[in-house]
Amino acid sequence: MITLDGPGGAGKGTLASELARGLGWWLLDSGALYRLVGLSALREGLDPDRAEDRERAVAIAQALPVHFVPDKGAGQRVELAGEDVTDAIRADAVSEAASRWAALPPIREALLSRQRDFVALPGLIADGRDMGTVIFPDADLKLYITASAEERARRRYAQLSEKGVAANLEWIYREIVERDERDASRDAAPLKPAVDAHVIDTTGDDVAASLDKIHNLVAAKG
Ligand code: C5P
Fold it and tell me: If one looks up domain 31-119 in CATH, what number appears?
């Protein structure tokens, strides 16, 4: 079991799927679960600030009809009740909704056992914010993947430009900083490295360089 935690846009997702592919292990993208809650709640017009909407959101989280479909060379696709929502859950509005719902303890509680159910042989790569601190405290190797907010904003901007989506770098930067702050300052499972995590700063590194560092750590573990 290897956990990868860290802020959004630090490269965790790419590194986690590359690692899972290389080792032939299973992959848990826990952020996708929070994003699915965010997407479903947005579609139902639910607001995390309205107490009466929270019960419904918890019910959604408990019964998420999610299915992860392995996608050759591109990680995995995400299906919600048979609908392919892989791209829909990456929308900015969904990122924000996910992070707001994720701050509520009953939502986290509702997703806890579902995340632990991903454990299977020969091994699991778990990607998120609290994988090493809360969900899998006994993981064999814990990694905390980070990068400067400027670099993360530039990467997101490049990603969007590549897809032909108009974007504003300054605005993306502000959103990243705001989401980091919300994830790190919440009481429930705040974003922070586990005490026994190896911190890997990917600022200035490409994927291959970061993977090299991780493979060295995996090899050192035996
Ligand atoms: O990793 P990703 O950007 O897809 O996660 C979306 C949001 O879900 C994060 O901003 C965070 O608020 C929440 N999240 C979380 N705990 C996790 C994974 C994601 O709170 N383990």
Answer: 3.40.50.300
